[in-house]
Design a protein that fits this description.
Elements (H helix, E strand, L loop, with lengths): L5 E6 L2 H4 L12 H4 L2 H4 L2 H6 L1 H17 L4 H12 L3 E6 L5 H4 L4 E3 L2 E8 L5 E3 L18 E5 L9 H9 L3 E5 L11 H7 L3 E6 L11 E4 L2 H13 L3
Parallel strand pairs: 1-2, 1-7, 2-3, 7-8, 8-9
Antiparallel strand pairs: 4-5, 4-6
Helix pairs in contact: 6-10
Bound molecules: 2'-O-acetyl adenosine-5-diphosphoribose (OAD).
The site of 2'-O-acetyl adenosine-5-diphosphoribose (OAD) has 25 residues, from α1.
Length: 233
């Protein structure tokens, strides 16, 4: 195996599935139960903020009851024990990486944070957000979940692209590869000469772009893979 100093890991909803949080596109997933255009766009929030808050309040309550699983714990161990850099980028809006002790870049925002649609001030979200709640900074009644909706720009992209361009191992865990720009990260890492590995329950839309694949439940495959990386294999 080539020498690895800098690892970038992208996680998706599949890593939190065994913690009881539903994924988006698996059978019976969130996008089978709710229309994206009703709950996850800026237009939806203008049209029916009650419905959008209801959707994210339910997600926040579920996430608050969930615990991190063996896959989150293994990535936290990798971050603390690997002698080089381990940059963890997540599309997930839950806090399960942090609960396990890892530091993650939340490119799609976080359920635990609120954002003022008027002045962009951010603060800790209450468990239940209500339509018309005011911003603590500017007092506008425009508090919204700090979640990146469809049609909005993901967060921290400069930092993520820089990490991808300088990594020598890229791993994607539990993500379907259906949402850009995250689905394009593997190509970016490959162009930088990085080794690429996908860990998923099944083939994804981006499987063809990875050199290596490990198939199975994240709670089983991720701890084993972390052991291999730490052993330099
Ligand atoms: P998806 O629901 O699209 O995909 C979940 C992936 O996890 C699938 O590829 C599954 O095969 C895999 N999976 C499920 N259970 C697993 C397990 N126990 N172990 C390993 N893999 C498992 O979720 P994401 O790819 O995260 O964005 O979706 C990306 C974005 O689309 C989300 O961040 C969200 C959504 O719309 C926004 O809301 C902006």
């Amino acid at each position: 195996m080539r020498k690895v100093d800098r690892i970038v890991i992208l996680t998706g909803a599949g890593i939190s599935a065994e913690s009881g949080l539903g994924t988006f596109r698996d059978e019976g997933g969130l996008w089978a139960q709710h229309r994206i255009e009703d709950v996850a766009t800026p237009e939806a929030f203008v049209r029916n903020p009650d419905l959008v808050h209801q959707f994210y309040n339910a997600r926040r309550a579920q996430a608050a009851d969930a615990g991190s699983n063996a896959a989150h714990v293994a990535l936290a161990r990798l971050q603390s024990e690997f002698p080089g850099d381990v940059i963890l980028v997540t599309q997930n809006v839950d806090g399960l990486h942090e609960m396990a002790g890892a530091a993650a870049i939340h490119m799609h925002g976080e359920l635990s944070r609120a954002l003022c649609a008027t002045c962009e001030h951010r603060w800790d979200a209450p468990l239940s957000m209500e339509t018309g709640a005011t911003c603590p900074a500017c007092a506008a009644p425009t508090a919204r979940p700090d979640i990146v909706w469809f049609g909005e720009m993901p967060y921290h992209l400069d930092q993520i692209v820089e990490a991808l361009q300088t990594c020598d191992l890229f791993a994607a865990i539990g993500t379907s590869g259906q949402v850009y720009p995250a689905a394009g990260f593997v190509e970016e890492a490959r162009m930088a000469g990085a080794a690429t590995i996908e860990l998923n329950l099944r083939d994804s839309d981006m499987s063809h772009a990875f050199e290596d694949h490990i198939t199975g439940l994240a709670s089983v495959t991720v701890p084993k893979w972390v052991d291999q990386v730490l052993a330099g294999r």
